[in-house]
Amino acid sequence: MNAPEKLTLKDFATDQEVRWCPGCGDYAILKCVQRLMPELGVTRENTVFVSGIGCSSRFPYYMNTYGFHTIHGRAPAIATGVKLANPELDVWLVTGDGDGLSIGGNHMLHVLRRNIDLQILLFNNEIYGLTKGQYSPTSQLGTRSPSTPDGSVDMPLNPCSFALGSGARFVARTIDTDTKHMTPLLRRAHEHKGASFIEIYQNCPVYNDGIFDYVKDKKTAAETRLVVEHGKPLLFGADRQKGLRLNAQTLSFEVVTLGEDGVTEGDIMVHDETNKSLAQMLAELKTPDYPEAIGVLYCRPEQSYVDSVYQQIGTVRAKKGIADLNLLLREGHTWQVE
Amino acid sequence: MSVVESIPVREDPTPSSSSAVVRFAGDSGDGMQLTGSNFTQATALYGNDLATFPDFPAEIRAPAGATFGVSAFQIYFGADEVTTAGDDLDVLVVMNPAALITNLKDLLEGGLIIADKDAFTNRNLARAGYTTNPLEDGSLDAYRLISIDITKQVIASVEPFGLSHKFAVRCKNMWTLGLVMWLFDRDKQTTIDNLNAKFAVKQDIAKANIAALNAGNSFAETAELPSGIEVYKIQKADVLPGLYRNTTGSEAMALGLIAGGQLANIPLTFASYPITPASSLLHTLSAHKEFDVVTFQAEDEIAAVCAAIGASFAGSLGITSSSGPGISLKGEAISLACATELPLVVVNTQRGGPSTGLPTKTEQSDLYQALYGRHADTTLPVLASSTPGDCFDVAIEAVRLATKFSTPVLLLSDGYLANASEPWIIPDLNDYQDFHVVHETNPEGFTPANRDEDTLARVWAKPGTPGLEHRIGGIEKDFETGDISYDSDNHQKMTAVRKAKIDGIDRFIPEQAVSQGGTQGELVVVGWGSTFGAIHQAVKQCRASGSDVSHIHIRYLLPFPANLGELLEGYKKVLVTEMNTGQLVEVLKSKFLIEMQQLNKTSGQPFKIREIMDAIHSLLGED
């Protein structure tokens, strides 16, 4: 055996011209993933990128691994089939808010519920890009778009809440251009055995430009971002003087300032990523009332569906012994005609 | 002592000694299917040829006594070759008035009715729509009637086992079976073995059922039946020598898929979503994890086909299965498999439609869907199985074509085939030619667009293979490189090569054979799928009485065998017989520009032999 050659970012990039619009948040995510792959120590041949339809779903064409650009919304089902056939493969699923939460919402629910061992990257730009700018299931109320010229009237879906509600065992959120935050997050997602769901706030410069500026702009980010880390207090603000305190009476968070009204760090809620109730509360935090949580909101591993399936198969095979179809055909009542 | 109410005198008390058709009918909770399958086993062991037709309602447990809840099991057995479940009944066993009123029309005049008179209560009579009791009002005078207080008899026979009234009455079907077994001289032992196995952990239930079976049998034997009712002597059939078992189409299909996987030397991933009457395939395969098959009950029809496609991409053979409405949902994904040229087997166990239609009944109305029911130019091979046993071979053939040509294959079965059973010469896997799949492993000159020169099949390189990393997807791909291409000439070329690949399959399948009769003549009856048995018998009987008629049964519906057009031109008249409004006939006419006649039925019931014979005689000008 030769020692595996050390791969670089270039080894994971294809020769295909990247066709996203200039300034699209997808570029930053692609670079981040391409750079991360060699660090993960994975091989190109065992890595598979599966996607649905939409801007985000072009992703596999740019990854020099195995890849399958499938049909709208169905990537979770296709990825499930890939894992069922070969659990050894390292499968990434790339989807968007329309693909993964509208047309493919049902499959997303079930792939999370079954805890299929995948890294699921959901690029949330709150708009349909490839079909030219219609509002999506995550668009804010009142979004004006070609299909909602007077503003959208339906309530948006919160992807992380959806994932938690679906039974996901790993739920995280990050921001397209924040490579420093995204890289370790993706590494953790990759380490996690089971479905790892990552919502990525992603800017669409053409149809929904700047919707995440409030968390990206250096001037406001400190006030609008709550970077959560397991075991650490939920602090934010320019000098990390603000924090979230749990009001046990209302079962909700209060934004408090250290040193004001006798508030000390001991009053601040400490993040426990194994606490699902806390994760739900963090997922729901929205500006302007609260900062928005990024980081690993929830991580509580459980055996994946595919592992259980193969465990069951192993048990049956151990019990039944070597399978012989000719014997099976002759099982039960048979009779000889001379 | 019971009383046998009325036995009209009949001049010829023994029906045709060469065959008999018996139907058991009762409430869906009366255990008629179990009764039928046990009688079938005993009949097979007796040495008759046979065919069965379970006919059950969509409701799982309809209200007791309701006409829409009647469940029936029909068996046709005899000394001659039997290929259908029979046209008319010689014996009708009815467990209540609803079963009588819904089934009487199929009983031959002079046929035998065995009825549980205890179930003919005022309430049940009213529920079935009778104003007077037909067992007593003379309305059944055209038939022979054995009216027995079966419920009372059963309760008496199982009394020693101390069952509750509810459980005691449930042994009614075994009591009745015991009686019918006496009538046809069948051996009870397999049923006793089955009961002991089924109720291994509930010995009292097993014993009670066996006691009921024996009691029914003794009841008949100890001459409590009046003269005129004698043991039917059905001669043993002269069938091909070999080792036999009974099989339903869905069992044979499941075993055939496993066999196909073994012959292809490839693991199977079977992904499906429950739908009547296709679910039994999922059930059967899920119970055989010892073979190289992973089963997956998906969240919906679309996920099922997509998981199968994902499995094929990963190097296994993906298989999905459904009935018509589910196949509709899978359409877009099947086109993805066409575009990406991945192997896939799609089984459609057709049912009466449209929409929910008649989910437990049979029809062949999804042929157009199989041939054309997707967006864009997505041609794919379509196969149909014709008998329960044939499902085994056609499943193997579907696996062969899917893997050889890297294409989705649509395999058509139907509700009748799936549930009907027939004796089957057990195949020996060693007699089948294998067709091992070889995944690409050589990076030299590799592109995902590479094709086999002969078959035009796209190369199958699976993830995990070093040096063959590549991307596929629904966007059109360059003919040479496999990269995304929006080039217009390239799309024309790709469309053409995908079509040429499928059209060219006719070089790799057998020529169309004539299953009965000459290769030319006055008339040929053309069929496909489960109409085989009825057409076969009709043509056989017409030929025996001198008609110049042949039978062609088409397994390969797309592409057609290369000789089919020429073959059809050899007959003066062509009669296309289908359980739909005329789909194959339109395809054949447009393809071969030959004038054709058609015979169609869409009642949810299989053709009767007589219906096809009538059409043959009419077309030949015979009376």
Report on this structure.
With 338 residues, chain A is an alpha/beta fold. In chain A, 31% of the residues lie in helices and 19% in strands. Chain A is built from eleven helices and twelve strands. Chain A has helices spanning 25-40, 75-85, 97-103, 105-113, 159-165, 179-191, 213-216, 218-224, 276-284, 305-320, 325-329; strands at 47-51, 66-69, 90-96, 118-124, 170-175, 196-201, 225-228, 235-236, 242-247, 252-257, 292-299, 334-337. In chain A, the strands form two sheets. In chain A, strands 2-1-3-4-6-5-11-7 form an eight-stranded mixed sheet, sandwiched between helices. In chain A, strands 8-9-10 form a three-stranded antiparallel sheet. Chain B is of the alpha/beta class and 623 residues long. Chain B has three domains: 19-224, Pyruvate-ferredoxin Oxidoreductase, domain 3 (3-Layer(aba) Sandwich); 245-431, 3-Layer(aba) Sandwich (Rossmann fold); 521-619, Rossmann fold (3-Layer(aba) Sandwich), CATH 3.40.50.920. The two termini of chain B are 51 Å apart. The model of chain B is unreliable at 1-16 (pLDDT under 50). Chains A and B meet through β2, α2, α4, α10 and α11 of A and α1, β7, α9, α11 and α12 of B. β2 of chain A pairs parallel with β15 of chain B.
In short:
Chain A has helices at residues 25-40, 75-85, 97-103, 105-113, 159-165, 179-191, 213-216, 218-224, 276-284, 305-320, 325-329; strands at residues 47-51, 66-69, 90-96, 118-124, 170-175, 196-201, 225-228, 235-236, 242-247, 252-257, 292-299, 334-337. By secondary structure, chain A is of the alpha/beta class.
